[in-house]
Design goal:
The chain starts with a helix and ends with a strand. Strands 2, 3, 4, 5, 8, 16 and 17 form a seven-stranded mixed sheet that branches. It has a five-stranded antiparallel sheet with strand order 10-9-21-20-19, sandwiched between helices. The chain folds into four domains: 2-34; 50-217, Alpha-Beta Complex (Penicillin-binding protein 2a (Domain 2)), CATH 3.90.1310; 221-266 and 276-441 and 450-559, DD-peptidase/beta-lactamase superfamily (Beta-lactamase); 580-633, 2-Layer Sandwich (Trypsin Inhibitor V, Chain A), CATH 3.30.10. The radius of gyration is 36 Å and the shape is elongated. Helix 3 (87-98) packs across helix 4, helix 12 packs across helix 14 and helix 12 packs across helix 18. Strand 20 and strand 21 form a beta hairpin. It has 634 residues and is an alpha+beta fold. The longest helix is centred in the N-terminal third of the chain and has 33 residues, at 2-34.
Length: 634
C-alpha cells in the first residue's frame, strides 16, 4: 500500500513536470515565432536610433512636362547630445559657423533628448556652411539631406501654385490643396547605441524615403508665359490697382493659363502681406462685369427667339428711361438708328436695356442661373468666390434693365469665362479644372485623373453659332477691333465697368475688360483680361484690355498651332487704324514695274540690276501698309 502511494505521487509529479515543460516550450515558441517581430521592434527601439531623411516633395508639371515646382537638395543640422563629449567646444564652433549666440547653441547641444534638430538656424543650410560643419568631424553632429521647394519661374502662377513652409508643408494654393499627395514619406539612417546613447560599432540600416506624388496640370507653359509677360507689361504701362487674366479650353474646361497682379515670389513669401498672398483674383475677385455680361443677354434673347439681329432695329438717342431712372449710352448723343447686330457691335447700353425688357426678369434670371452665375464653378482651387445676383423678388424694371448690360450684379472672372465658353462652344457648361492627373513618381502611372465634366446644356447649337458670328462681328466692326488678328478669325466682347465703393459709383475708376476666343467658327481657346483702374489712358475695354488679349492670342496661335482660316470678316477700319494690305508678287519684274505695285509699302533694295530675283515678304502675304518689302536684284 505504501509503495503504491509513492508510485502515484511520482506519476503526479511527472505529469506536473511534463506540463511545465510544455508551458515553457509553448511560451518560448510564442516569443520566438509568433510574437518575435513585435518584441524585436520593442527591443530595437531601446538601443536603435533614427536619423530622419526627408523625402522629395512631388513635382508640379504643366501639360507638356515643363516643371513648374521642383526641389533643391539641401542639408540640415541634427545633434545627438549624448554623443557630444565636449559640449562647450562644439557649441562654440557651431555658433561661429551658423552666426548664432553661444548660449543658444549650447541649449541645443545639452538638451536632454535622444535627437535634437537645430531649428531654424540649422535648416536648409548652404553648401558652404554645410562643408564647414562637415570638416569639423565632431562626434554627435550630423548633416542630413533635406529637400527645399524651388520654383524655377519664380512669380509665375504664384497664387495658383502657392508655397510651402520651412518644413515643406503646403501653406496655400495647389501646394496646400494637394499637400497630402505631394508630401512623401520620411526615410531614415538607423544606428545602434547603448543605454547612454553612445554609438555602437554595428552596421547602419538605410531606409529610403518615398518621394511624393507628382501633379500634372492642364496649364500650357507657353501660353502661361505669354499671359505673365503681358500682365507685367500692363502693370508697367498703366500702373493699375490690379490686373488678371484667364485662358481656358472652352470644349473641356481645362485652364490653360491663369495669373493676376499683384503677385509674389513663393520662395520669399514672408516678404509679402497676407492679402497679396491669398487673393487669387481670377477665382476670388467679384465685381460688376460691365459689357462682357451682355453676351448672356444676347444668348438669352437669341435662344428665346425674341430678336432677329439683322432685321430688327433700335434707335439710340443717347439714353433710355426706365421708370424714374435715365440710363445713358457711353456715346454722347447715342448711335442713332441701328440693327441689333450693330447694337452688339457698338455695345449700346440702351439697346441692351430694350432687349432685357423684351426678355423679362423671370427668363433672363433663369438663364443667368443656368450659365452658372451666383454660385461657385467648382474649380479645383481654394478661395473661389460665388458672386452676387439679385433675388428675383427684388428685381424691378430698373434692376432688370441694369442687369441686361452687366451693372448691379457681381460676378467672378472664372464665372464669366465658363459662361461665355458655354455660349460659344455649342451650349455646354463645363466644370473648370486645372489638375489633369496625379502620377506615381517612379513609374509615372496615373493614380487619379480629372476629365471634362458637363454641368448642363444651356443653349442650342444654332443659338451658339449665332453668338459666335455676332461676337466675331464685334471684333471686326465694333468695339473689339483692337483684338483683330489678320488671317485669323477672332470673336470677343469688350467691357468697361464702373467700380463701386461704399455703395456709390466711383468717378474715373473703371475695370476695363475683354473676353475673346479663336478661331471664331470653331473655338479652341477663350481668353479673359481685366485691368483695374488703368492710369494715363482712356479707360475702355477696347483701348486697354483688348490689345493685351490680342498679344496673348498671338502666342496662343503658336502654342496650339492654330492655322489661318478663310471666311472671316474683314476689319472695318477707321482713320486711326493701321491697315493691312496684300503684298503683290513682283519677282521677275523690273524695278519700275515693281514700284508701281508696291506704292503702299516702303521698299528696300539689295544688289544691282533691273530685275527682281527675290522678295521678302513673299507675294500673297499680308502686312501693314507702310511696312518694309525687301527686294533682291539680279
Amino acid at each position: 500500500m505504501f509503495f503504491k502511494s509513492i508510485h502515484s505521487r511520482i506519476k503526479i509529479i511527472l505529469v506536473i513536470i511534463i506540463f511545465l515543460f510544455i508551458l515553457i516550450i509553448s511560451k518560448v515558441f510564442f516569443i520566438q515565432v509568433i510574437n518575435y517581430k513585435r518584441l524585436n521592434k520593442y527591443a530595437s527601439g531601446l538601443w536603435s536610433r533614427n536619423l530622419p531623411i526627408e523625402a522629395n516633395r512631388g513635382l508640379i508639371y504643366d501639360r507638356n512636362g515643363v516643371v513648374l515646382a521642383n526641389n533643391l537638395t539641401t542639408t540640415s543640422l541634427v545633434l545627438i547630445p549624448n554623443q557630444i563629449r565636449n559640449k562647450e567646444e562644439v557649441a562654440r564652433k557651431l555658433s561661429e559657423i551658423l552666426g548664432v549666440s553661444y548660449e543658444e547653441m549650447y541649449k541645443h547641444v545639452s538638451k536632454k533628448v535622444s535627437i535634437e534638430r537645430v531649428h531654424p538656424e540649422g535648416r536648409r543650410l548652404s553648401y558652404e556652411i554645410a562643408d564647414k560643419i562637415a570638416a569639423l568631424k565632431l562626434d554627435g553632429v550630423y548633416l542630413l539631406r533635406e529637400a527645399k521647394r524651388y520654383y524655377p519661374y519664380d512669380k509665375m502662377m504664384s497664387h495658383t501654385l502657392g508655397f510651402v513652409g520651412i518644413d515643406n508643408q503646403g501653406l496655400s494654393g495647389l501646394e496646400l490643396m494637394y499637400d497630402h499627395y505631394l508630401t512623401g514619406s520620411y526615410g531614415a539612417i538607423k544606428y545602434f547605441s547603448d543605454a547612454k546613447g553612445n554609438r555602437l560599432q554595428l552596421t547602419e540600416i538605410y531606409e529610403e524615403p518615398q518621394d511624393g506624388i507628382n501633379v500634372n496640370l492642364t496649364i500650357d507653359y507657353k501660353i502661361q508665359a505669354a499671359l505673365e509677360r503681358e500682365l507685367d507689361n500692363a502693370v508697367a504701362k498703366y500702373n493699375p490697382d490690379q490686373a488678371l487674366g484667364i485662358v481656358m479650353d472652352p470644349n473641356s474646361g481645362e485652364i490653360l493659363a491663369i495669373s493676376s497682379r499683384p503677385n509674389f515670389s513663393p520662395s520669399n513669401y514672408q516678404d509679402y502681406t497676407v492679402e497679396e498672398i491669398n487673393r487669387n483674383l481670377p477665382i476670388w475677385a467679384t465685381y460688376e462685369p460691365g459689357s462682357t455680361f451682355k453676351i448672356i443677354t444676347l444668348a438669352t434673347a437669341l435662344e428665346e427667339k425674341l430678336v432677329d439681329l439683322e432685321k430688327d432695329t433700335f434707335y439710340d438717342a443717347g439714353s433710355i428711361r426706365v421708370e424714374n431712372a435715365k440710363i445713358r449710352c457711353w456715346k454722347a448723343g447715342g448711335h442713332g438708328h441701328q440693327t441689333y447686330m450693330e447694337v452688339v457691335e457698338n455695345s449700346c447700353n440702351p439697346g441692351f436695356v430694350a432687349l432685357g425688357l423684351k426678355i423679362g426678369k423671370e427668363t433672363l434670371f433663369d438663364y443667368i442661373e443656368k450659365f452658372g452665375f451666383g454660385k461657385k464653378t467648382g474649380i479645383d482651387l481654394n478661395g473661389e468666390g460665388s458672386g452676387i445676383i439679385f433675388d428675383l423678388e427684388q428685381v424691378g424694371p430698373v434692376e432688370l434693365a441694369t442687369t441686361s448690360f452687366g451693372q448691379g450684379v457681381s460676378v467672378t472672372p472664372i464665372q464669366q469665362v465658363v459662361a461665355v465658353s458655354a455660349a460659344i462652344n455649342g451650349g455646354y457648361l463645363y466644370k473648370p479644372y486645372i489638375v489633369k492627373s496625379l502620377n506615381e513618381p517612379e513609374t509615372n502611372s496615373v493614380i487619379k485623373e480629372n476629365k471634362k465634366q458637363i454641368v448642363r446644356k444651356v443653349i442650342s447649337d444654332e443659338t451658339s453659332e449665332k453668338v459666335r458670328h455676332t461676337l466675331e462681328s464685334v471684333v471686326a466692326n465694333g468695339t473689339g477691333r483692337p483684338a483683330y488678328i489678320d488671317g485669323y478669325r477672332v470673336g470677343g466682347k469688350t467691357g468697361t465697368a464702373q467700380k463701386v465703393k461704399d455703395g456709390r459709383y466711383m468717378v474715373g475708376n473703371y475695370i476695363a475688360s475683354f473676353i475673346g476666343f479663336l478661331p471664331a467658327d470653331n473655338p479652341k481657346t477663350v481668353i479673359y483680361i481685366a485691368i483695374d483702374n488703368a492710369k494715363g489712358v482712356t479707360q475702355y475695354g477696347g483701348t486697354v484690355a483688348a490689345p493685351i488679349a490680342r498679344s496673348v492670342m498671338l502666342d496662343i496661335i503658336d502654342a496650339l498651332n492654330i492655322k489661318k482660316r478663310s471666311g472671316g470678316m474683314e476689319k472695318e477700319y477707321n482713320y486711326l487704324d493701321r491697315r493691312y494690305a496684300d503684298v503683290p508678287n513682283v519677282v521677275g519684274m523690273t524695278v519700275e514695274e515693281a514700284m508701281k505695285l508696291l506704292k503702299k509699302f516702303k521698299v528696300e533694295f539689295t544688289g544691282t540690276g533691273e530685275i527682281i530675283e527675290y522678295q521678302s515678304p513673299s507675294g500673297g502675304e499680308r502686312i501693314h501698309e507702310g511696312e518694309v518689302v525687301r527686294l533682291l536684284l539680279k
